[in-house]
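Homework help thread (please don't just give me the answer)

Our assignment gives two proteins as sequence + structure token strings and asks us to describe the second one. The first is just a warm-up. Here they are:
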Amino acid sequence: MVKLIAIYRKPEDVEAFNEHYFNTHSPLAAKMPGLVKMEVGTIYGTPMGDSDLHLICEMYFESKEALKAALSSAEGKASGKDLMGFAGKVVSMHMAEVHE
């Protein structure tokens, strides 16, 4: 199992960001083929206090090949294009193997 992790820093306009993320981007991303599970969390702080982060999204796939295929699919490309359009300046993307 692997996951694609998107970490979002706090945007300038949180309300507009959330509107687009939850009503447009998240439904697009959820259509990626091979997606096993998607979890989105709102960051509310750190053990030391405030955080400059806003959201984290974890998208799980059965294998590296399944993740690569999802990113190369029409749905993956549409999601990526949308992501760069509204969050390109605040997002970092990471891929990880899941250890259970």
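The one we have to describe:
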Amino acid sequence: MLKILRYVFSTVVLIFVLYGFITRSFAYQPFMIFFLGLMMLIIGLEEYQKGRKLFSWVSLGGFLFAMYVAIEGFILN
């Protein structure tokens, strides 16, 4: 289930990245960072299940930072 969610979130991020790259519009960048953060959460959970605690904590730290940046982007835009 986590692998499917990781693929879904990475596909959504890729769509937002390609849209921004082609149109040179940064209007959807907070959404891209939000889904990137969710993908980092899923990766952290997968690593925790595998017993790789260090990589799990690094991924969860990336998730928290991405959520902070995404929320700040939503508020400022």
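TA reply:
I won't write it for you, but here's a hint about the kind of observation we're looking for: The chain has a mean pLDDT of 93.
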